């Protein structure tokens, strides 16, 4: 009962702040931007002109896999920033305003408080990712070639797991910081550091959650899932759970203090 009440409250707040509208729209723009640009770029250049007489412009057309990867890459970069911005005030905002103390003055479990807010944010981001990537898949199928619905669905599910970890990290910083800006900054820095470490030592830490995007790219090229993507998924879930547990303990300690 407690959990569902907080969960519904979060979903309602997301709706009142129009996040259920603008977040999917922004994600869709990111997903279709590069494929559409690459497809229509030669046409744009021809219409603009300014090409020396007799000169020809030859722009290689991306393969269907490359076009789909563009959508995932944009969301893996800009989409992460939006996800962090959307979730940076989940707890820190309420702690700073005093709403947090008011809520927890009632018999509300710290675990319910953290997990309900987290799941509501995850639903928003997962919905936005799914819609945007399906729209991107639709345009890629029309303009570049065919990717099966099964392949895009599987890829989206793994991508959501990656964002699940991102939200877990944001929730962790939410639990002990009052500044939303600082929460966002440290979350982004943490994700960047994890990506850099994984890129440098990718041959060693093949289970790193930040390599999920790379394994998705390989899946589009080969049509076969790499075994390592399952280990990366388990690692992402483990890190998420760890972040939520630490966030809950942190809030409990703050309440005692």
UniProtKB/TrEMBL annotation:
The chain crosses the membrane at residues 20-41, 67-91, 118-140, 152-173, 185-209, 229-251. Keywords: Membrane, Transmembrane, Transmembrane helix. Pfam families: ABC2_membrane_2. This is ABC-2 type transport system permease protein. It comes from Alkalibacillus filiformis.
């Amino acid at each position: 009962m407690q959990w569902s009440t907080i969960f519904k409250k979060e979903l309602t707040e997301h709706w009142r702040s129009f996040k259920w509208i603008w977040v999917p729209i922004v994600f869709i723009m990111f997903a279709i931007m590069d494929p559409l640009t690459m497809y229509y770029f030669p046409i744009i250049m021809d219409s603009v002109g300014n090409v020396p007489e007799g000169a020809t412009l030859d722009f290689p057309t991306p393969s269907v896999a490359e076009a789909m990867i563009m959508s995932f890459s944009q969301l893996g970069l800009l989409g992460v920033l939006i996800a962090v911005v959307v979730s940076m005030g989940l707890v820190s905002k309420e702690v700073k305003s005093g709403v947090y103390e008011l809520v927890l003055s009632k018999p509300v479990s710290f675990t319910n408080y953290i997990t309900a807010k987290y799941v509501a944010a995850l639903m928003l981001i997962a919905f936005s990712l799914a819609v945007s990537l399906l729209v991107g898949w639709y345009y890629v199928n029309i303009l570049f070639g065919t990717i099966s619905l099964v392949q895009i669905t599987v890829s989206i599910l793994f991508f959501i797991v990656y964002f699940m970890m991102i939200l877990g990290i944001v929730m962790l910083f939410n639990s002990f910081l009052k500044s939303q800006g600082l929460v966002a900054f440290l979350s982004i820095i943490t994700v960047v550091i994890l990506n850099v470490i994984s890129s440098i030592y990718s041959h060693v830490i093949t289970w790193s959650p930040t390599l999920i995007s790379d394994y998705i790219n390989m899946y589009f090229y080969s049509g076969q899932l790499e075994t390592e993507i399952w280990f990366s998924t388990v690692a992402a879930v483990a890190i998420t759970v760890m972040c939520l547990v630490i966030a809950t303990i942190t809030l409990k300690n703050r309440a005692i203090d």
